[in-house]
């Protein structure tokens, strides 16, 4: 009568662990961003002004794959079509070098001026910034202490080499390709810290 099916007995796979990892990373992001914001002595407007002077159309190279190339000394942003998927993605090659939220904002503003960017497709600048912040924290954990690396491997079910290889550059994908959990996670980070 109470038959146990294979579906009811299923053990969560790596995808369940990834959701836990994303949630943990979100909490870490929230704590780190809150701590850094609490100690800021320069106003957001001043930081953003300096970031826009540093990162603009002269220093951020946005190009479409096959119609441009990476340029030395610039932040390189490649817009490419995902292999076998047919949708466009935005790759920020030097994403790990940028940890300041104002600088992320300035770079994303340059990207948003490109004809391939659409808020309906990729989300707002602050939503993309939330992805970037989360990405950098997750990479930091994957390359951090032995305990952090073991935790990441356990949660994702992947080797550190695989995780680091996938996370060396930030890829911003269309909203339509994200899970509800991903959108929720990035939304929490965006709502809490990316509206200034």
The helix/strand order is HHEEEHHHHHEH
Terminal-residue CA separation: 58 Å
Tally of individual domains: 1
Mean model confidence by pLDDT: 82
Strand order of the largest sheet: 1-2-3-4
Shape: globular
Biggest sheet statistics: 4 strands, mixed
Helix/strand-derived class? alpha+beta
Work out the helicity level: 40-55%
Low-confidence stretches: 1-16
Kindly provide the radius of gyration, computed on alpha-carbon positions and rounded to a whole number of angstroms: 18 Å
The helix tally amounts to 8
Strand elements, count: 4
Strand content: 5-15%
Provide keyphrases for this structure.
196 residues, alpha+beta, four-stranded mixed sheet, 8 helices, 4 strands, 10% strand, globular, disordered N terminus
Question: Which SSEs are present, and which pair or pack?
Answer:
Elements: H1 14-38, H2 44-54, E1 60-64, E2 75-81, E3 88-92, H3 101-112, H4 119-122, H5 125-142, H6 146-156, H7 160-167, E4 170-172, H8 180-193
Parallel strand pairs: 1-2
Antiparallel strand pairs: 2-3, 3-4
